[in-house]
Amino acid sequence: MNPAGPVIRHAEHVMGTVFSFAVRSTGAGAEVGVAEALGPVVRRLHRIDEVFSTYRPQSDISRFGRGELALAQCDPAVAEVLERCREVAAETGGWFTERPGGRLDPSGWVKGWAVEEASEQLRAAGFVQHTVTGGGDVQTCGGPWRIGIADPLRPGAVLGVLAGHDLAVATSGTAERGAHIVDPHTGRPATGLLSLTLVGRRLALTDARATAAFAMGPDLGLAWAAGHPEVEALAVLPDGTRRRTPGFAFAPPPAGSADPAHLPSLALPGRS
Amino acid sequence: MRRAVVTSTATVAGVILLLSLKPHAGTATTAQVISTGGGAGATDSAGSGSGPSAGPASGAGAGSGGSRTVTGDAVDTRYGPVQVRLSLSGGRISRIDVLQYPAGSGHDRRINADALPTLNQEAIAAQSAQIDAVSGATYTSDGYTRSLQSALDRAGTR
């Protein structure tokens, strides 16, 4: 069972969305300790937004995109993020791009990476039982934590719940923001899926891969996920049909007991 | 716009919601709770609302002795505040009323008509907000979960 202890929650509006934290802690003064740990974490998130927001004309990424800054003049994270984007583009056969629609926008990597960084910061501060969620993408540390998968056909409802330790869960879809994922090969919005959820270990890579697999569509996307043992996938097609990789252990929405001990636990290869 | 950059730990402490998730034992006998119409009551509450209202909804009196109501925090979401109220009977959740919810856009109305009742049924069934995080979630469902959890904490239910 879970180590008993209060779960302290915090929601932060940053990067145009909500980041939420659930941190399990024990002992007197836990909330003070968590608050102190969250201070630098949320400051870092706001800093990442300042550097990478494509909605801010003066962000490093905007100025670099316009040619006003050289890469060496940008925050060092810019070069690293662009390198990671190229790696995902290569491993997905070009189904991920840091230039969706032709304009420099590495958000497909940055948001998941920011969540993963926040989780790592909390872990380094000694809080080894937590979840961090950013715009619907989740990184868990410790566990078991129960992660609901939003139903794209019923806003606010969940398709089901998965449980496990040290999971990254990323859902790409049209429910919240419309058809916003561009097929890099055609430049048109990808419409073959309502949503695609990928489960992995680390959210930056998992989130970027989910964007790529969503663009691939149901057949290629699921085949691609099935070929990667460290990835599981659940897809919802426009007619509501659900398809998943064989290892996507998954429970229906909580009806009776939602005790994590009663949920199938997702087994992934160890954290690399 | 909102530049709520946190600049001190005191500020952080001020906005922390201290939630203590309940132990998960003792939720086995929930099927009968679903069938008592708690979900239907919640559906009525969400479906009949004509706008975001801070006033109490109907149905405050659950009737029998040992009943009481507990109101959760109003939680701000991107689409507006969400606030729920629990009715408890004999220590169990019998009904959840949505006191406030966003009702501006068509998107919000879909949430009102569909999402909140669904969440209500799930919450009544589970007797707690027993999902730790949601992937692909809407802002509103997050607000619902947080308001519900604050009400559960206040109620001291198991």
Features:
heterodimer; A: 272 residues; alpha+beta; T-fold; 8-stranded antiparallel sheet; two-stranded antiparallel sheet; 6 helices; B: alpha+beta
Can you tell me about this structure?
The complex is a heterodimer of chains A (272) and B (158). Chain A has helices at 30-52, 60-65, 76-91, 107-124, 203-216, 218-226; strands at residues 7-14, 17-24, 130-134, 137-141, 145-150, 158-164, 168-173, 195-200, 232-236, 242-244. Chain A has 272 residues and is an alpha+beta fold. The longest helix of chain A is centred in the first third of the chain and has 23 residues, at 30-52. Chain A starts with 6 loop residues before the first strand and ends in a 28-residue tail after the last strand. Residues 254-263 of chain A have low confidence and may be disordered. By secondary structure, chain B is of the alpha+beta class. Chain B has four helices and six strands; from the N terminus they run αβαββββαβα. Chain B has helices spanning 9-15, 31-48, 106-126, 139-155, and strands at 17-19, 67-71, 75-77, 80-89, 92-100, 133-135. Residues 1-64 and 104-119 of chain B have low confidence and may be disordered. Chains A and B meet through strand 1, strand 2, helix 1, strand 4 and strand 5 of A and helix 1, strand 1, helix 3, strand 6 and helix 4 of B. Strand 5 (145-150) of chain A pairs parallel with strand 6 of chain B, so a sheet runs across the interface.
Q: Gap between N and C termini of chain A, in Å?
A: 25 Å
Taken as a percent bin, the fraction of beta residues of chain B is: 15-25%
**What is the CATH architecture term of chain A?**
Roll
**Overall geometric form of chain A:** globular
Q: Largest beta sheet of chain A, briefly?
A: 8 strands, antiparallel
N-to-C span of chain B = 41 Å
Alpha carbon gyration radius of chain B: 16 Å
Order of helices and strands of chain B: HEHEEEEHEH
